[in-house]
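R.M. (postdoc): so does anyone remember the format we settled on? I'll just put the structure tokens first.
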């Protein structure tokens, strides 16, 4: 700021320095959060608000970070989708809901999911179903109840209805599984 020893600090300069110091604190907090993992802009904003900064103070700082390419909702969505698909425990619908909760725009979600390879979803659902059937068969003997519980389980995991029907068909459990859902 061009200050030297024995320079007089005016009220105007003092206010300017306080504002700059506040921005640096916000940047520091944002960088600390981003160093741990990627965040969506909405998610990062919410975390900074919880740390006591106002939205008006946060927005210009996040804009600067975005301009430098360190905060990007599209890249966050790609990384999040790839990470969730790699764990192979949830379906596309659940991932969409999680991304919406993180403040990602619906158009971005649809675009990224449209580009992603989600062909392994059926295989994932089949593997999860086979594990779940073992547990269900210990508790239930009625095939109809097993198929309903299995369908509900897969639906809760975020798998699409058509995919669930295909999985039940492959497991020979598809009759009326969605009747009571």
């Amino acid at each position: 700021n061009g200050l030297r020893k024995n320079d007089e600090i005016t009220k105007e300069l003092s206010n300017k320095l306080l504002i700059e110091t506040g921005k640096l604190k916000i940047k520091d907090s944002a960088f600390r959060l981003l160093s741990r993992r990627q965040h969506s802009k909405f998610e990062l904003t919410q975390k900074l608000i919880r740390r006591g900064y106002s939205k008006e103070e946060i927005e210009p700082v996040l804009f600067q970070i975005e301009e430098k390419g360190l905060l990007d909702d599209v890249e966050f969505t790609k990384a999040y989708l790839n990470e969730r698909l790699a764990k192979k425990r949830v379906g596309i619908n659940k991932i969409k809901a999680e991304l919406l909760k993180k403040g990602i725009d619906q158009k971005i979600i649809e675009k990224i999911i449209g580009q992603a390879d989600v062909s392994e979803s059926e295989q994932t659902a089949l593997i999860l179903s086979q594990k779940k059937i073992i547990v269900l068969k210990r508790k239930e003997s009625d095939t109809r109840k097993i198929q309903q519980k299995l369908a509900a389980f897969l639906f809760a995991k975020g798998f699409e209805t058509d995919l669930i029907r295909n999985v039940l068909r492959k497991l020979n459990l598809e009759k009326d599984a969605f009747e009571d859902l």
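R.M.: ...and that's the designed sequence above, right after the tokens. Also worth knowing: The CA atoms of residues 39 and 126 lie 31 Å apart. DSSP finds nine helices and no strands in the chain.
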